[in-house]
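Page 37, continued from 36.
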């Protein structure tokens, strides 16, 4: 991806080995005067959010090899390290937005298919980042349970978010700006919520 800052591409096993050897080499020997030796701190993580890693390392991170870190698979085939407790790197957010924008805007006839594709994206993005990803989108909902019930188009979201009504329960119609404000109010209380716009 153009403009993406590549720090390094190294396998996890090699970096962990280097860190372990460095830590072992710093372990103090018993003092001649019998006093207790100082205890060194554990080696820091060899990765920071935004680092690019290979597929094998990404798999290890996603399996929990380094708690708190995961790897997000980019559209270009690379993997970027993300932290469950920090903001997502800009290149990851840009990739998410590009994926969502590649899905056509829903019509009354295609709403179910579009919502399904956005739902698949949300599921995958949450799994890869540990974040509560939600997509702000314009979709169509039936105004009854009958098979031929008329549909209404409105701004809504895909993905669960605390403090935001379930799409099917929110009968009010909002503008795009109003609905984004609803999501942002929830995000202010829970920074793990990530809002991606569609359409």
């Amino acid at each position: 991806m153009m403009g993406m800052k590549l720090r390094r591409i190294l396998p996890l096993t090699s970096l962990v080995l280097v860190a372990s050897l460095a830590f072992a080499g710093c372990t103090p020997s018993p003092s001649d005067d019998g006093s207790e030796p100082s205890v060194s701190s554990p080696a820091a993580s060899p990765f920071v959010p935004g680092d690019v890693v290979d597929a094998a390392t990404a798999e290890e991170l996603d399996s929990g090899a380094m708690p708190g870190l995961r790897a997000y698979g980019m559209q270009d085939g690379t993997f970027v390290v993300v932290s469950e407790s920090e903001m997502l790197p800009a290149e990851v957010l840009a990739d998410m937005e590009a994926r969502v924008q590649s899905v056509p805007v829903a019509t009354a006839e295609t709403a179910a298919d579009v919502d399904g594709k956005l739902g698949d994206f949300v599921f995958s993005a949450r799994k890869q980042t540990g974040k509560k990803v939600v997509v702000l989108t314009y979709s169509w909902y039936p105004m009854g349970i009958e098979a031929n019930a008329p549909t209404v188009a409105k701004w809504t979201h895909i993905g669960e978010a605390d403090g935001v009504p379930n799409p099917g329960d929110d009968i009010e119609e909002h503008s795009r700006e109003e609905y984004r404000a609803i999501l942002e109010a929830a995000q202010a209380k829970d920074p793990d919520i990530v809002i991606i716009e569609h359409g």
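The longest strand covers residues 132-142. Flag for discussion at group meeting. Residues 144 and 150 are 7 Å apart (CA to CA).
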